[in-house]
From TrEMBL:
InterPro entries in the record: DinB/YfiT-like (IPR034660), Maleyloyr_isom (IPR017517), MDMPI_metal-binding (IPR024344)
Record key words, sorted: Isomerase, Pyruvate
Name of the protein: Maleylpyruvate isomerase family mycothiol-dependent enzyme
Gene3D superfamilies for the chain: dinb family like domain (1.20.120.450)
Mycothiol-dependent maleylpyruvate isomerase metal-binding domain ranges (all copies): 15-91
Organism: Modestobacter muralis
Domain of life: Bacteria
Amino acid sequence: MTEHDVRTWVAQTCEGLADLLSDDTWDAPSLCAGWQVRHVVAHVTMPARLTPAQFGAEMAAARGDFGVLSDTVAARDAALPPAELLAALRSPQLHDWQPPGGGAAGALNHAVVHSLDVTVALGAPPTAPAPALTAVLDQLADGTVFGLDLTGVQLEATDGNWGSGEGDVVRADSGELVALLAGRTLPDGRALPRVSAR
């Protein structure tokens, strides 16, 4: 996976998501608890809409808590005109962005997981290309990123040859597996166990 690959995959994922959205999808629920599709798009496009100075001000207002910042910006910017949010999804600035400390892998994870928050909830095919889905599955397969307990769990993609782990088999398509590994609950209620607090 090269940085060129990542930029291409991120662009395809975001452009595909922009192509998918229509007037009747913006208010649909997403896989992110309490967020509609418009909130997810407002969140994922922050790097294209906020300057570093604006982001710093938002972080200061949130007292350094990125979760608070995300909720605040999503709640506010979800009210932006859809055309503005779509333009941000198509922005080369978003396609080139890499999170501080996360690099290319973090950028790919961000775009793919949040696109699936929309497409899986809508029952639509992933907008991320298959190699991007596989790359993110490989990133998330140890369960540490989202605090999952994958002990005794075997994951198998029904649309390819990807698999990981040993134990009770969880089968789903690649997009659904990414969503599960990102700690999401699927529309049919399937979820992976969290690590127990000690």
